Amino acid sequence: MKNSVELLAPISDFASLHAAIEAGADAIYFGLSKFSMRARPSNSFTLEDISKVTSICKKNNVKSYVTLNTVVYNDEINTAHQICDFLKKSDIDAIIASDFAVLTYARSINLPIHLSTQANVSNIESVKFFSQFADVIVLARELTLEQIKDICEKIKKENIQGPSKKNIKIELFAHGALCVAISGKCYMSLAQYNFSANKGSCLHPCRRKYKIIEEDTNQELIIDNHYVMSPKDLCTLPILDKIIDAGVSILKIEGRGKAPEYVYTVIKSYKDALDSIANNTFSNEKITSLLEDLQTVYNRGFWEGGYYLGEKLGKWSNSSGSQSTFKKTYIGKVTNYFSKINVAEVKLEAHLLKENDHIIVIGQTTGVIKHQVKLMKDINKKTIKQANKGETITFESQKKLRKNDQIYLFEKK
């Protein structure tokens, strides 16, 4: 049985794009330097990049969406419209938006729209209203599975259609960071630092430690966790079968600010889970194995099921950074690849490497490759068990590596 649910991957550069495709993503989404909820330059593409992105996607039968989902001010409306005009002429499959300045204009030029979770759609009447603009609606993250199922059933029963004259599809966030605010609408960063979360520039003050002190007595309130506004990451992998049964069509993975190996590992894990559901092999053993894989990359602890199972937000992360079980350490770069014999040549710039070590290779064209080092040799073609910083070595790799691909040691913490 073929899995019919679309798996949507976050990308921030060409390495994560190729990683998403290699891992099995059905679609990708990315932001530009303007009107993106991840507006930092390192997380954004330019308009000039779009043709290359869409070309790669088309070759791999992967859909591509651009996020224009921030608040738009008066002096930005013309720029937003110009970007919509540009995207209309490109091969982008849809935009993801929530501001009416974008929604109304994009609809007027027949640019396909997916409604962002920023719109906080929580009921069927809101679905009906936004169906005049969008073919896909990303529901609020705070709904329960019962509420989601009810919305999906009513769409089908009432034949609620979008501009494409097809029934509205429901998209759901399946994995990744959660904001303590309702569906990500937060003003804390703006109030404290004048960097607006709703303009894509959040400085994440909620991820930090705070003391609560009663002013009159100067007594500190005792709390059970310093990070009382910093929830664990959402993880729905154990309940994916229930989400599919509810009628969800698209599963979105959060993480446009994350590294390529995060994109690869999370997409691959969820793709494996979806395939096993379709093949009736989705078991507790499968879930446990995939959760172990997810824990190897960036995470802040998992809130399994979250709001969707009706749980109250009380699963707080106990640290500001990652709780991944593995770490990556930069060791060097690929200097050559001999395709006839499937051998990579690597210059060790920062760390030693031993036979049987696990590494991650990351490149803007290569994407992400996980590999265990075998048959390592020095420049004299002598087989060695260990190579030190500064040495040039070779090892077998059945997958093609490229010059200047970065090599990282990937080991348990």
Summarize the model shown.
This protein is of the alpha/beta class. It contains 10 helices and 21 strands. The strands form 4 sheets. An 8-stranded parallel beta barrel has the order 1-2-4-5-6-7-8-12, surrounded by 4 helices.
Q: Could you please describe the fold and organization of this structure?
A:
- There is one protein chain.
- This protein is α/β, with parallel strands linked by helices and 413 residues long.
- It has 3 domains: 6-179 and 231-309, TIM Barrel, CATH 3.20.20; 182-220, no CATH class; 326-412, Translation factors (Elongation Factor Tu (Ef-tu), domain 3, Beta Barrel).
- It has 10 helices and 21 strands.
- It has an 8-stranded parallel barrel, surrounded by 4 helices.
- Helix 3 (77-89) links the parallel strand 4 and strand 5 (94-97).
- Helix 1 packs parallel to helix 9, helix 3 (77-89) runs parallel beside helix 4 and helix 9 (260-278) runs antiparallel to helix 10.
- The radius of gyration is 23 Å and the shape is globular.
- The protein starts with 5 loop residues before the first strand and ends with a strand.
- The mean pLDDT is 90.
What is the percent of helical residues?
A: 25-40%
Strand order of the largest sheet: 1-2-4-5-6-7-8-12
What is the H level of CATH, i.e. the homologous superfamily of the largest domain? Aldolase class I
**Strand percentage:** 15-25%
Under CATH, the topology of the largest domain can be stated as TIM Barrel
Number of domains: 3
Summarize model confidence as the mean pLDDT. 90
Put simply, the count of helices is 10
Net shape: globular
> Unreliable segments (pLDDT under 50, ≥5 consecutive)?
none
Number of strands: 21
Largest sheet: 8 strands, parallel, barrel
